[in-house]
Amino acid sequence: MNFKIGTGNVGQDVELKEFNGTSVLNISVALNQFVGKGKGDVNRDGEVGNYQTLWYNLTLWGALAESAAKWVKRGSIVEFAGEESEEKYTTKEGEVRTSRKVRVLAFNAFVVPRSQQTETQSQPVTQEDDDVPF
């Protein structure tokens, strides 16, 4: 098991759940990571290669899960640290893929808490049928 530290964007809204009386929160996070050498971009160390988006499935437990659920939504920028595990699987088309999971031990979110959002921030803009020009 490896230790993973990362900063990325949340891919979908989260839902706090309960498992055997303990709060649990699963979060899908996209990280841009520099991969390989060769043609492409130059990273901050001057190496040439490509950036690739890797998805991580984070799991938070207990008070950490409850706290994160108040702050995190789709598009939030988060940073985390925890124990990483990888699982290889084969798709129906025969393609081998890797699922990356992190049991989160430390977590930070960079957003306004849902409870402090204004009505206009949390309400989608809609148009009445009477205003449609056709």
Low-confidence sequence ranges: 119-134
Please give the largest β-sheet. Answer: 5 strands, mixed, barrel
CATH superfamily: Nucleic acid-binding proteins
CATH architecture: Beta Barrel
Q: Mean of the pLDDT scores?
A: 82
Rg over CA atoms = 19 Å
The helix content, as a percent range, equals: 10-25%
- What is the terminal separation in angstroms? 60 Å
Order of helices and strands: EEEEEHEEH
Binned strand content: over 45%
Number of domains: 1
Strand order within the widest sheet?
1-3-5-7-6
What is the approximate shape?
A: globular
CATH topology: OB fold (Dihydrolipoamide Acetyltransferase, E2P)
Q: How does the SSE layout of this entry go?
A:
Layout lengths: L1 E9 L6 E3 L2 E14 L5 E2 L5 E14 H10 L5 E14 L5 E14 L9 H4 L12
Description:
The protein has one domain: OB fold (Dihydrolipoamide Acetyltransferase, E2P), CATH 2.40.50. Helices cover 10% and strands 52% of the residues. The chain has helices spanning 62-71, 119-122; strands at 2-10, 17-19, 22-35, 41-42, 48-61, 77-90, 96-109. Strands 1-3-5-7-6 form a five-stranded mixed beta barrel. The protein is globular, with a radius of gyration of 19 Å. Residues 119-134 have low confidence and may be disordered.
